[in-house]
Amino acid sequence: MRRAFSDEFKREALKLLKQLGAKVTRIAKYLGIEQSVLRRWVSQE
User: Fold this and answer.
1) pLDDT exceeds cutoff 80 at 11
2) Does a structural domain hold residue 22?
3) In terms of C-beta distances under 8 Å and separation of at least 24 residues, what long-range contacts does 20-27 make, across chains too?
4) What percent helix, strand, coil does the chain show, rounded to 5?
5) Is residue 1 part of a domain?
6) Which residue range(s) make up the domain with 11?
7) Given a cut of 90, is residue 1 above it in pLDDT?
8) Residue 4, Cβ density class (10 Å: 0-12 exposed, 13-18 middle, ≥19 buried)
9) Cα–Cα distances in Å, from 21 out to 3, 6, 17, 32, 43?
10) How far apart are CA 42 and CA 6, in angstroms?
11) Do 33 and 4 contact (CB within 8 A), yes or no?
């Protein structure tokens, strides 16, 4: 089953990615989400 993420969670994830300048893999692991999910959010931004 697919997990649903709130818009706020997505915004915070993208904010972390930008502020820390870390790799998608590291932020995704920290947040407990798949890398592909975070990459999709980045591409949709």
Assistant:
1) yes
2) yes
3) none
4) 70, 0, 30
5) no
6) 7-44
7) no
8) exposed
9) 26, 23, 6, 18, 16
10) 15
11) no
The full length of the chain comes to: 45
Domains in the chain, number = 1
Residue 2 included in any domain: no
Burial code (b: 16+ CB inside 10 Å, e: under 16) for 17-33 equals: beeeeeebeebbeebeb
Question: pLDDT over 70 for what percent of the chain?
Answer: 100
CA 23 to chain centre: 10
Contact 35, 26 (CB under 8 A): no
Q: Are 17 and 10 in contact (CB under 8 A)?
A: no
Both tokens of 12, joined, read 């915070």
